[in-house]
């Protein structure tokens, strides 16, 4: 465990509110990062993807960087533009 992981664990142990908001924030970050990685694996820039989605580069950036309230329909269109299919799993 590195210093950052120890710090996060300590803060979570000390504050249930921090633990809850940290986990929510991490999941939102993770979704955006998964989208970014999928776009890059498809060999597309944000501008390329924006063109496929008939939108602006700034909209793609917003999806990837602020995915806290993203609609399933938006995720589905994003996936389709990458030649992928969106699958939702509840665990």
UniProtKB/TrEMBL annotation:
Chain ranges of the HTH cro/C1-type domain: 35-89
Molecular-function annotations in GO: DNA binding
Transmembrane segments: none
Alphabetical list of InterPro entries matching this protein: Cro/C1-type_HTH (IPR001387), Lambda_DNA-bd_dom_sf (IPR010982)
Superkingdom, natural source: Bacteria
UniProt cross-references to PROSITE patterns, sorted A to Z: HTH_CROC1
CDD domains per record: HTH_XRE
Protein name (database record): Transcriptional regulator, XRE family
């Amino acid at each position: 465990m590195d210093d950052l992981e120890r710090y996060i664990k300590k803060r979570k142990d000390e504050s249930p509110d921090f633990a809850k908001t940290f986990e929510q924030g991490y999941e939102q970050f993770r979704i955006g990062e998964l989208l970014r990685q999928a776009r890059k694996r498809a060999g597309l820039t944000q501008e390329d993807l924006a063109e496929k989605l008939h939108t602006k580069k700034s909209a793609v950036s917003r999806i990837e960087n602020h995915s806290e309230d993203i609609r399933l329909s938006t995720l589905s269109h994003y996936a389709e533009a990458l030649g992928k299919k969106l699958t939702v799993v509840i665990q």
